[in-house]
């Protein structure tokens, strides 16, 4: 027994080394970003505080470009507003006495958040924002900025949350070409932070360089029609049965500042419905509805 | 004793925060300066290996939490810390006077310290970039990253070393 103890004491460094290496490897190769503890991600309190302090300084750096983007976006929306107003007036003339159309309750709301940490050069990129569960942010909510789609909320702390960036191979986004119903999934190929690849498109689909790619709305995360990017060229094909396109992303990931988290008021309902589709108990739908209404 | 521990604690926190900022800065899309391993390199020579490994693991893990790279820096710094002792013995002659157990340009001389520093930095950069590149499969780019980052890190850590040492001399 004494010899055994002596052996352990004499070679303790090897055991300590092995334990640490195994622990690191477990963390490293546990390849699922969705099941991480909040304490081991940048969404924890200490990290968020430090990043907030840094961001108080660095957030001023790109204001000029961000301002220009916002002005452009504003002009676009104003233009759209004028057009819609005209259309509305015309429709009123055509249908003078109809009962007011039923106004559906608003499905999507926004939580405005500030990016306090961001990375674009890692193989798996994440973004940290300064809004958390206390502000109504929940996992699996979509995040956009003024230029396009940014990512999906992944781990949520009280006052901070980690977003899995579009520049992360773990994220697949269902997209389609604006004006057509062919959809594919957008995934980052890990090379250039300004492009991603839209895969699994049907081979016979026609496209032009410069066509706009938007979200398909097939999940509860993003509403339909949010701009993601534009077609750049045909991508090198991995699978011969499908078409792949290289997409230039409209979001400038190196200059993220203010983003909006999309909260879907019907997400619970949709999720419950999908559970029902998969052959589980359909009473979950009712529960989801009750839970979904405030 | 307590003073040394406190000094190391301050050094670790400061370098960790500097590293968090530097990790976001990528020079020419290849070079990422790594400075926090200076803490591990500076630990006293006579400190038990178990302590060196533990400190390395905790430092690496803290950086991982900031960078959202679970386990990557922790693994690299533990392996580097394991090499530390043998690298030190390989470069420092046995009869060398080690009245000051903290490795630095002052206690070892510039030549020996540079060899010690560069070997361990290259080990660290090799580990970190090859672990990182598991998914990228681009060996030339990875090697370029290792080389550029090592050079940049070594230069920065020499600067930090001169800062830390002169400050101590003034205080005495």
Annotation keywords:
heterodimer, A: 294 residues, alpha+beta, 6-stranded antiparallel barrel, globular, B: 172 residues, Arp2/3 complex 21 kDa subunit ARPC3, 7 helices
List the helices and strands and how they pair.
The complex is a heterodimer of chains A (294) and B (172).
Chain A (H helix, E strand, L loop, with lengths): L1 H9 L1 H18 L15 H14 L4 H32 L13 E11 L7 E4 L12 E3 L4 E8 L4 E5 L7 E5 L5 E5 L7 E8 L9 E4 L11 E8 L7 E8 L8 E7 L2 H11 L5 H10 L2
Antiparallel strand pairs in A: 1-2, 1-12, 2-5, 3-4, 3-12, 4-5, 6-7, 6-9, 7-8, 8-11, 9-10, 10-11
Chain B lengths: L1 H21 L14 H6 L6 H19 L4 H20 L13 H4 L1 H23 L6 H33 L1
Helix pairs in contact in B: 1-3, 3-4, 4-6, 6-7
Characterization of the model:
The complex is a heterodimer of chains A (about 290) and B (about 170). Chain A is an alpha+beta fold. Chain A has one domain (about 35-95, about 105-265): Rod shape-determining protein MreC, domain 1 (Thrombin, subunit H), CATH 2.40.10. Helix content of chain A is about 30%, strand content about 25%. Chain A is built from 6 helices and 12 strands. Chain A has helices at about 1-10, 10-30, 45-60, 65-95, 265-275, 285-290, and strands at about 110-120, 125-130, 140-145, 150-155, 160-165, 175, 185, 195-200, 210-215, 225-235, 240-250, 260-265. Chain A has a 6-stranded antiparallel beta barrel with strand order 1-2-5-4-3-12. In chain A, strands 6-7-8-11-10-9 form a 6-stranded antiparallel beta barrel. In chain A, helix 5 runs antiparallel to helix 6 (about 285-290). The relative contact order of chain A is 0.13. With about 170 residues, chain B is mostly helical. In chain B, about 75% of the residues lie in helices and about 0% in strands. The chains are: A alpha+beta (about 290), B mainly alpha (about 170). The interface of A and B includes residues 51, 162 and 191 of A.
């Amino acid at each position: 027994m004494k010899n055994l103890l002596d052996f352990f004491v004499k070679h303790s460094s090897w055991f300590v080394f092995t334990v640490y290496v195994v622990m690191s490897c477990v963390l490293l190769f546990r390849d699922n970003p969705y099941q991480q503890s909040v304490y081991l991600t940048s969404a924890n309190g200490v990290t968020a505080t430090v990043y907030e302090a840094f961001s108080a300084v660095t957030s001023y750096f790109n204001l000029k470009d961000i301002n220009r983007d916002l002005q452009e976006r504003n002009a676009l929306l104003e233009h759209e507003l004028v057009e819609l107003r005209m259309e509305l007036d015309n429709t009123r003339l055509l249908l003078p006495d109809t009962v007011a159309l039923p106004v559906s309750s608003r499905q999507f709301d926004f939580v405005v958040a500030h990016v306090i940490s961001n990375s674009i050069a890692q193989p798996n990129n994440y973004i940290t924002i300064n809004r958390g569960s206390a502000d109504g942010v929940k996992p699996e909510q979509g995040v956009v900025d003024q230029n396009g789609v940014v990512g999906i909320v992944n781990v949520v702390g009280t006052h901070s949350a980690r977003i899995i960036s579009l520049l992360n191979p773990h994220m697949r986004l269902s997209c389609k070409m604006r004006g057509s119903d062919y959809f594919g999934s957008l995934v980052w190929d890990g090379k250039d932070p300004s492009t991603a690849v839209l895969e699994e498109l049907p081979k016979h689909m026609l496209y032009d360089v410069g066509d706009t790619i938007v979200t398909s709305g097939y999940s509860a995360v993003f509403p339909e029609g949010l701009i993601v990017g534009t077609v750049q060229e045909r991508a090198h094909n991995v699978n011969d049965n499908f078409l792949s396109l290289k997409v230039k992303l409209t979001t400038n990931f190196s200059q993220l500042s203010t983003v909006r988290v999309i909260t879907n008021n019907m997400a619970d309902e949709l999720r419950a419905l999908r559970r029902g589709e998969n052959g589980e108990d359909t009473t979950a739908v009712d529960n989801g509805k009750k839970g979904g209404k405030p | 004793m307590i003073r040394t521990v406190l000094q190391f604690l301050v050094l670790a926190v400061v370098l960790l925060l500097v590293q968090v900022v530097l990790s976001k800065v990528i020079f020419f899309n290849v070079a990422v300066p790594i400075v926090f391993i200076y803490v591990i390199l500076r630990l006293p020579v006579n400190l038990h290996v178990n302590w060196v490994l533990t400190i390395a693991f905790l430092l690496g893990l803290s950086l991982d939490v900031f960078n959202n790279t679970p386990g990557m820096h922790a693994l690299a710094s533990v392996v580097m810390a394991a090499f530390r002792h043998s690298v030190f013995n390989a470069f420092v002659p046995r009869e060398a006077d080690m009245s000051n157990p903290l490795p630095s340009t002052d206690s070892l001389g510039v030549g020996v310290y540079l060899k010690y520093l560069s070997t361990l930095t290259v080990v660290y950069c090799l580990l970190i970039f090859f672990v990182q590149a598991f998914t990228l499969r681009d060996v030339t780019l990875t090697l370029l990253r290792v080389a550029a980052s090592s050079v940049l890190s070594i230069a920065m850590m020499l600067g930090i070393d001169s800062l830390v040492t002169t400050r101590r001399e003034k205080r005495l």
